[in-house]
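lol ok so funny story. i was supposed to be doing the assay writeup but got distracted and ended up predicting the structure for this chain instead. priorities right. anyway since i did it might as well share w the group, maybe its usefull for someone
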Amino acid sequence: MPINWNQRLALLIITLITISLLFYLRTTQSEANIFAKQLNTQEIAFHDTNTPTARLSQLSQLALMKGATNDGRTGPTTARALFLTLPPDQQLAIWQNAAITDLDNERIPSERLTLARVLLPALGPEWNHTLILAIEDALRTSNQTDNLNLAALLSDWRAGRVAQQAGDHDTALTHYQRIWDHHQTITYYSHLGFGFHYPLMQAFQIADQPDLTWLHANYAYATTPLLPHDTITTSQQLLATYFTPENHHTALAAWENRHQWITRTRTIDNMTQVWVEGGTFTMGSDPQAMLQLCQQLTANLTNDFDYCDLSVYEKEFPPHQVTLDGFWLDQTEVTNEHFARFVAATNYETLAEQRGRSIVRDKDGLWVQLDGTSWQHPEGPQSNLDGLQQHPVVHVSWFDANAYCQWAGSQLPTEAQWEYAARGSDGTLWPWGDDLDGSLVNHCDANCSFRWHNVHYNDRFFLSAPVATYLDNHSWVGAYDLAGNVWEWTADWHDTDYYAYSPTHNPTGPAEPVINKRSLRGGAWISTPDNTRSAIRLSVKPNITDYKYGIRCVTSSP
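and the output, tada:
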């Protein structure tokens, strides 16, 4: 049967669609793309005998660029590990080439600053000075300020390390002090890795600067998961003996002396409070922007768990202007030591103690009500507070938190007071700024067994950490741990839509309960990175107690 014109036209359209689809698959699944995917799923060995050496080198470089430039904060990839196996001349070539082009003429820009952030932490506990010099030279070929700033820091590091290894500690300290004086010019200073921070820790320790010693020890430890696998344990052991309560106390005191925060001591519980000057700020966030941020933060995590939920961020809408009077804020979360004073003075019995149980995580990772659990037995009846005096008190309900603050002559903060103290009029995403830094916050890191854990950082703690462990995790007023560690109860009843009708001056939350839940702020040791932001809101029934809820108080009077 002859084919009519309509049938011919249909066949032509189908043929064109097929050709277009094949072309699309060819361009999107290029040899380099496939190679990069195989590398990152470990389906192909680097020294593949079926691939010519020159071509393999080119493809591995391209795969490295693809893996590294996607997100400079996400830790080791197979492509990055491949970089470390390349001969030195090929490593140097990657830094000296302005771009890399594969056989399909696909051009990938050499984002050198991003590559530096990705690769430097993985270069091992003792850096190769020749490679560092090559990285400096590559960075200097760019006119970008960030590249030039990092090159300058690396130059000082290299000179300081040479002097340090020669026993000239004064010259080393001069270079390392200059690094610290200019460290804020580098967005990801704390991410530079063990090889960078450990020598600085040693120099500052010799120079009797306990705060900078502690700070760089934390930076070095936090990034040990990024090291070559066979060096991680040894590197962590080098640092573990340094982290003692005595060193923490000394470092904290020295750190306080560096700042001009206005503080006072609340006599009844010996809590340090910081003054929060009254002012106006933008409270809340754009939900779509926060969803995009979450997706960026999780783009290259090693798990397939998608926890970016728009409905969570819609609680922060709409962003709105709020003006607050000044107030005093507890500098840290209320610790077990603080709470013990309260109980000793009042014979107070928490809700968990009255019930004889509270919520903990069992051996299977499930949250269960466990008999005998309370603030004094945080992990069950066999546990106690030995070594936990400076950890935040947990297993406290909203009623327990409110009773403590009233006893101390204070109150629970409103949501507005809490958020203002955390982000200030600049409206930063986290207390320290707008960029996530996994080395500054106790969150769900490599120690955390939940699927959403961030394996690229080790904050040293499985559950809570001693308050003010992370000296750089402070807000503009000098309050510590407003991000992470434990969620903190606020005074407000929770209403998802409250921001739509909130007063603009000293808002105190809904006058009546809407869903019989109170608001908590700040995230905890179990939280994902975006859930440690200053604007994040959590709602919980006021009688609930478990291991991740704690206390911080405010005093409204001068």
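The two ends are 97 Å apart (CA to CA). The longest strand covers residues 487-493.
back to the writeup now i swear
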